[in-house]
Amino acid sequence: MSFETIQRGIILLEQRRYEEAKAYFAQAAAQSPDDAQIIALLARCEYLSDEQEARALETIDRAIAIDPLDADFHTLRGHILLSLHKPRQALAASAEALRIDPANDDAWTLESAAHLQLESWADAERAARRALAIDPENATAANMLGEALRIQGRREETAAHVAERLAKDPLDPRTHAQAGWAALKEGDRDRAEEHFVEALRLDPHQEWARRGLVEAFKARSALYRAHLRYAFALERFNERFRWAFLVGLVVGVRVLRVVLGPYGGVVAVLYLLFVFWTFLASGVANCLLFLDRRARLALDRGQRWEGATVGFAVFGGVLALVAGSLLHMRPVLMIGFGLIGASIPLSRTFTNESRIGRVLFGSVAGLAVLAGIVSAAAPGDVAEALAGIALVAVVATTWLANVPALRR
Description:
Low-confidence stretches: none
Distance between the termini: 42 Å
Strand content: under 5%
Structural class: mainly alpha
CATH topology of the domain at 3-165: Serine Threonine Protein Phosphatase 5, Tetratricopeptide repeat
Order of helices and strands: HHHHHHHHHHHHHHHHHHHHH
Radius of gyration: 25 Å
Number of strands: 0
């Protein structure tokens, strides 16, 4: 085994040239197949490379099989599991790391991150504080703590924590990103934008800041600011509460329709507008960002596709509905209904990290468009049946989009 090979790999890893570093570590691992440290370095490169988490998990398991008493190996395994959206398994990995080394602050940081993914905000705060008690300079744990405080709505503590972090390290891009999200939650869009831009200046690869900057751009719209307030209000509650809220909302609408009698239709229309608003606000806002040269540069590929497709479905659908109604042209009207129906699943397709969800919601969108075209071209029993199936599928989307496995 060449020492120079390993050193070159480490240098490339520090430079974030993961694919090149991986080649060096793979070569070293082939020469020393029983060296757990080299295999762990290879796993780290695979974990940090694009879409190689599954391979990284297999690699770190090889290292753990050789040396099961290295806490850092279990911690890395937990981070890989988190990237695979398996927070409960990540918690088990952090527990094993802490059993081996209770003073491992990275393991406590992993536990905090897993609790954040599980939406257990108080537990995330507790674990982050344990990590910081061991190492007050652990920037990742400090940012985990700030995020847990922000989501819990503890404004003064969040502001104090972020100010302290920025005073300690004004060049930390993640702290600037966190300050941006805190400002965005407070409704200070301009200050949020400043922090996100600074975070990206310090680290152009800071994805959390890029997403925040896009949200700040979209928040120029009053309707989207209302959408953000709604989203921020719900994020502090866990998945179970959100399901209860949705079910309660539907039950409440049904009860009001009965109680209000002839005016119940107004409640139903308001509910439908609420559903469309919650689903389409982001996609339509992405579409409108195309009009701003600076803002559209912040959109990633998925957001651009979402903006283009949702924008076309919404604006094209509304135009077709208006034209079809005014001109009494049933085919145009049917195409309009198809496009409007497709807009909902499209809003959960291109920015969805779940492959199953992308396929499912994309298929529902295609079904809605197909139903509109068939109804326009060849009205009849087949068209009506297809339209009915598409309608049920679109309605189901409004519920299935809340399933974590289908929407990440």
